[in-house]
Design goal:
Blueprint (H helix, E strand, L loop, with lengths): L2 E2 L2 E3 L2 E2 L15 E2 L3 E3 L2 E3 H4 L8 E3 L1 H4 L2 H5 L17 E2 L8 E2 L9
Parallel strand pairs: 1-4, 2-5, 3-6, 6-7
Antiparallel strand pairs: 8-9
């Protein structure tokens, strides 16, 4: 069961999701709290519904503007903050934490 009782902020899900009860793309059962600026890949999770977050296509999940428009703080932009938390290889992968960029070309 995928239960939420807290705040989910700037998160995403891409792995296959299955089950018989309280199943969702990002959140299966939303008890309390909030889900803010978070997404799930409806294609790779196999889920069209979730109790929180926004379901997107794989292509949308691999597009920087999807996350930038939701306020995610990416390396090289200052509009959403200067902490440089995320980076993305546009069209080729999902967002990654800044430290995962070591040695990557982007």
């Amino acid at each position: 069961m995928g239960h939420n009782q807290s705040v989910i902020l700037h998160c995403y899900a891409t792995g296959a999701v299955s089950g018989t009860r309280d199943v969702g793309g990002l959140v299966g059962y939303h008890w309390s709290g909030e889900v803010i600026a978070s997404f799930w890949d409806a294609e790779t999770t196999g889920q069209v519904e979730s109790r929180g977050g926004i379901g997107l296509t794989t292509a949308e999940m691999m597009t920087a503007s999807t996350f930038l428009e939701a306020g995610w703080d990416f390396v090289g932009e200052d509009e959403n903050g200067t902490e440089e938390i995320w980076w993305i290889l546009e069209g080729e992968g999902y967002p990654r934490l800044w430290w995962e960029a070591a040695g990557a070309e982007y």
